[in-house]
Design a protein that fits this description.
This protein is mostly helical. The chain is built from 16 helices and no strands. The protein has helices at residues 5-9, 12-36, 45-87, 89-97, 102-106, 113-138, 153-178, 183-187, 208-219, 221-243, 250-278, 280-288, 293-300, 305-330, 344-371, 374-378. Helix 3 (45-87) runs parallel beside helix 7 (153-178), helix 10 packs antiparallel against helix 11 and helix 10 packs antiparallel against helix 15 (344-371). The protein starts with a helix and ends with a helix.
Length: 380
Amino acid sequence: MVLGIKDIWKQQGIIIISFCAVFVCTLFLNYNIDVASIENNITSTQVRVLYEAQLMSGKVVCSLCGGSLLATSVIMLFFYIKQYIDSHKKQIGILKAIGYSGFKIAKGFSAFGLCILFGAGGGMLAAYGIMPYFYEVQNEDNILPEYSAHFHPILLICLVIVPALFFAVVSVLYGCRKLNVPVLELLREKIGKGFKAGKKQPEKELAFLVQLRKNTVWQRKSLVFFIAFAAFCYSSMMQMSFSMEELASIVFSIMIIVIGVILSCTTLFIAVTSVANANAKSVAMMRVLGYTIKECTGAVLGGYRWIAYVGFAIGTIYQYALLKFVTTVVFRDVDDVPDITFDFQAFWIALISFLAFFEILLWWKSIQLGKRSAKEIMGE
């Protein structure tokens, strides 16, 4: 099975995330390499402290930003591959039935490495586009000796080429693992183990819509994880972005806030869209049975609300603990580092915007599902 450009372009989330990750990492790593060339020209103790603080700041930003976004990209890639296999089980089953091995089919997933190539390459080009201005802002007081921006091929290899190859290999290996199932299971389009209900209610059975909501959610554990992860990313990225104002310059803070908002909204949008698409057939069947679109989406999509709220709460705790660790451990020897306290203003901004955005997405997806006929959905 060969993936086309259209299939690859559907993975905009990975493209956007890799763009932002490489954009930030290129700016700071390139800056650190160029600034390191003036180390021998620094004689003042105060200037050396500033020099070392800027180098450390670049390393921390790259490790935190690059590491977290790398993990996000891997998780989203696994999710996309699983969704692709689930939606093409019959075609894949036919290929295996006529003699294609799992590895031969999975080789097509190496095309997902192009997502990283497109995103990372664009991020590097954008970074070099604003790099002269970034260097000027970093040394606007002219405290450090003069230095200029240079292109370093090692960054192109490490931030663009190697990640693209890495994701291509990981995609193939993960595809092989997911395709290691019997051919008949693929041909029957079996989703997997059904939901195991808990103990029966001793006095009365649960209402149908309540039971349906529980079954629908836990039959697709990957969607449960993905919606919680999206809420976690929204919470941690949004709050951390606004909290960075105390630790960096205005320009850097604005850049982090913009990136945080883009990544937060993108991740949550993809998660809600995936949930709606995966449950479109369930909604169609309920509509055939006479249920209203409000009842359908409430029973099917509404079951993911509490999962999203739990993810948001975990993200809030995570971002505060991470910033506290950075300021108290990583920068413990640097003077004038502000003491980080819980930012209630950033919390309320993130919470209110999350609730509004999440509910609007659910409402919008409900409207879209309501406009599609059951025949159209069941024929896909």
